[in-house]
Design brief:
The protein is α+β, with helices and mostly antiparallel strands. Among the domains are: about 35 residues, no CATH class; about 160 residues, NADH Oxidase (3-Layer(aba) Sandwich), CATH 3.40.109.10. Helices cover about 45% and strands about 10% of the residues. The protein contains 12 helices and 4 strands, in the order H-H-H-E-H-H-E-H-H-E-H-E-H-H-H-H. Strands 1-2-4-3 form a 4-stranded antiparallel sheet, sandwiched between helices. Helix 3 crosses helix 7 and helix 4 runs antiparallel to helix 8. The longest helix is centred in the middle third of the chain and has 24 residues. The termini are far apart. Bound molecules: flavin mononucleotide. Flavin mononucleotide binds next to strand 3.
């Protein structure tokens, strides 16, 4: 057996877990960083063990190393450990228990307030700040920073789950964390040691999401049917009931009720100092 064989086998297994055995993409380069990324899974049950000293700072260093639009650095992160604040944040997020259970909870903030303060201090009106574009820049920055932290955490043997449900009530979150105008918590992140790491959740085949030169949908229906089968089996194995991806999408965005308050998000953001022009 040559020295490349174990890596090649690991790669095939990782791609099979990510896409299913029938949709493994053609061979390409591979290394430990990529293997780590393909092993990602969200974790919703944590052991009580604390994260080691200095881990928070390492995760933030990874976050700070992400690209940031025009180097504006329009994100911040609030580390929350106070049980009363965690309980209130869990309440905002429809009672998700892992928020109270994880040893480290991070709220990622799309933060235009720092640049607004810069403008005020310099006596300059930042004409671009009230525009939707500036919010989008900040939200993209926050997401890239957070995802770098996730990759770093997973490389250290920690697990995570994002908590978009904080957007159920961004005004309450801002109040709990003392956010200034122009700063909004766009999602949370639980960090800790998994009680049960669970399985890698398969994704849509590359043929659905990867387009060459022009966007195409010819095979999408057949690909969705195949993915429904894959995800139904995954869900059944992972005690979520035999739910297809099609049913999941419909349940998640088919009704305003399922938005759990986020149908008011644009108005709430305006109240937090984002005009979204
Ligand atoms: C921005 C964002 C918000 C999310 N919000 C939640 C959430 O509130 N609760 C939750 O349990 N999972 C949440 N997730 C995790 C997704 O459900 C999960 O990533 C998806 O089902 C794919 O599963 P995987 O991460 O295990 O591969 C969120 C993910 C993202 C990227």
């Amino acid at each position: 057996m040559d020295s490349l064989t174990p890596t090649a086998a690991g790669k095939t297994e990782a791609l099979a877990a990510r896409y299913g055995r029938d949709a493994i993409p053609p061979a390409g380069p591979w290394n430990e960083t990529i293997a780590g990324m393909l092993g990602h899974r969200s974790v919703r049950a944590y052991r009580p063990d604390p994260v080691p000293e200095g881990t928070l700072e390492t995760l933030v260093a990874a976050a700070s190393s992400a690209a940031t639009s025009s180097n504006l650095q329009t994100w911040s992160v609030v580390a929350v450990r106070d049980p009363a604040t965690l309980a209130a944040l869990a309440e905002v997020a429809s009672g998700q228990k892992h928020i109270r259970q994880c040893p480290l909870f991070l709220v990622w903030v799309a933060d235009l307030s720092r640049n607004a303060r810069l403008g005020e201090a310099e006596g300059v009106t930042l004409e671009g700040l009230p525009y939707f574009e500036s919010f989008l820049v900040a939200a993209v920055d926050a997401a890239l920073a957070a995802q770098n932290a996730v990759v770093a955490a997973e490389s250290l043997g920690l697990s995570t789950v994002y908590i978009g449900a904080l957007r159920n009530d961004v005004e309450r979150v801002a109040g709990l964390l003392g956010l200034p105008p122009g700063a909004v918590g766009v999602f949370g992140l639980c960090v800790g040691y998994a009680a049960n790491p669970g399985e890698v959740k398969p994704r849509l085949p590359q043929a659905t999401v990867l387009h060459h030169e022009r966007y195409g949908t010819d095979a999408e229906a057949a690909q969705r049917a195949a993915y429904d089968d894959l995800l139904r089996d995954f869900s059944a194995r992972n005690e979520m009931g035999p739910e297809t991806w099609t049913r999941r999408v419909i349940n998640r965005i088919g009704t305003l009720k399922a938005m759990a308050g986020r149908d008011r998000l644009a108005a709430a953001m305006r109240a937090l100092g984002f005009p979204l022009r």
